[in-house]
Design goal:
Blueprint lengths: L1 H10 L1 H21 L15 H25 L5 H24 L1
């Protein structure tokens, strides 16, 4: 049943995207029209300020995660080749000895 639902959503992705964007625009318009009861922060008094804050917070988290990934996780392509060089030299020496023993 879940597979059928997901397949239906994928087949109607363009329509679903338009509905979600219209709902988001409607919420921002409703926020512009209805006054807030009280504001703890400056951006809460702006129309659509919560949505703007959410988008900026999401983008900053994505940027932070990308920066941490680039700094801590990603390695150059030949990173492990440098560490394995001594072992490869030992393997090469062993192969040469086995070839000389066979001759």
């Amino acid at each position: 049943m879940l597979v059928k639902l997901l397949d239906l959503l994928v087949r109607h992705a363009r329509w679903l995207k338009r509905v979600v964007l219209a709902a988001m625009a409607g919420l921002v318009i409703a926020d512009l029209l209805s006054p807030a009861g009280y504001d703890r922060f400056v951006w809460e008094s702006w129309g659509g300020g919560g949505a703007l804050f959410g988008v900026l917070a999401c983008l900053s988290l994505i940027g932070l995660a990308k920066a941490l990934g680039l700094g801590l996780v990603y390695r150059r392509e030949a990173y492990y080749d440098d560490e394995l060089a001594p072992y490869r030299a030992l393997e090469d020496a062993a192969e040469e000895r086995s070839r000389s023993d066979l001759s």
